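Hi everyone, sorry if this is the wrong subforum. Our group has a chain we'd like a structural model of before ordering constructs, and none of us has done structure prediction before. Sequence below.
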Amino acid sequence: MIERAAVADLIRSAYAARHRGDLDGLMSHFHEECSYRLAGGPEACEVFVQPDGRAAVREQMAGLIATYVFSNIEELALMVEGDRATLHWRADVVCLPTGRTGSFEIMDLITVADGKVASVTQFTDTAGVARLSV
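Answer:
Right subforum, don't worry. Here is the predicted structure as tokens:
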């Protein structure tokens, strides 16, 4: 089993890559059989599509990086238990296509396998995300 410190380092490194817009760096942290889910209905906004597998997650992440830029990022809590972690964080977000901005508090449930991120389920203000995006 992976050590707590290694899981915490993996997560912080992956999120740092995402926040600086480094798609290759971000994807280097993901397992081949990974999934990403921003909890919300895809009918509300296309960002809520739920890709499975590295190629689909990469495509989703590329779109997210091109669309949403984070600033004033603050880690509120990172809890690790075995191969599961919960990251609670907040950030200001700008949606580049619309120019709209908002402040969001986010909770991510993360599973790690073979030293890589296997799944992320992200919870935030989905109505707020939809407002930024349309």
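For your construct planning: Helices lie at 4-19, 23-27, 54-67, 126-133. The longest helix spans residues 4-19.
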